[in-house]
Write a structure and sequence with these properties.
This protein has about 110 residues and is an alpha+beta fold. It contains 4 helices and 6 strands. The chain has a single domain, classed as Winged helix-like DNA-binding domain superfamily/Winged helix DNA-binding domain (Arc Repressor Mutant, subunit A).
Length: about 110
């Protein structure tokens, strides 16, 4: 069950806290989706993820590394240890955005009715 705490827009999901910053850009989301399809929720080495992005999305190494860092910062990728990452579940991410969107819509709606 998702619970929204308004103070700084932190989504809490029973096991972890997810900070929602913004919707990803097309390249970021497609890179995440590719990594999710390739590894699902299994842990993978950072270099393996970079190699997948370089081969399948024709990115150079620097761009692929920056996209992986950005996805990690946006909490699409979670650190297992220093060099190992894991993709967050796609449905969990979409549920987080849906909850945030519903919260902001309901807040706007309640202001109009008051």
């Amino acid at each position: 069950m998702l619970k929204l705490v308004r103070s700084d827009l932190v989504m809490t999901n029973q096991a972890s806290e997810i900070k929602i910053s913004r919707w990803p850009k097309k390249r970021e989301f497609l890179a995440y989706y590719l990594l999710y399809k390739e590894f699902h929720v299994n842990p993978f080495n950072i270099n393996e993820g970079v190699e997948v992005l370089m081969k399948k999305l024709c990115m150079n190494r620097k761009t692929a590394v920056n996209v992986v860092k950005r996805l990690k910062r946006m909490n699409y990728l979670v650190s297992v240890d220093t060099l190992t990452l894991r993709c967050r579940d796609l449905l969990g991410i979409l549920d987080s955005y849906l909850s945030l969107y519903m919260y902001t819509r309901l807040k706007k709606c309640s202001y109009k009715k008051s």
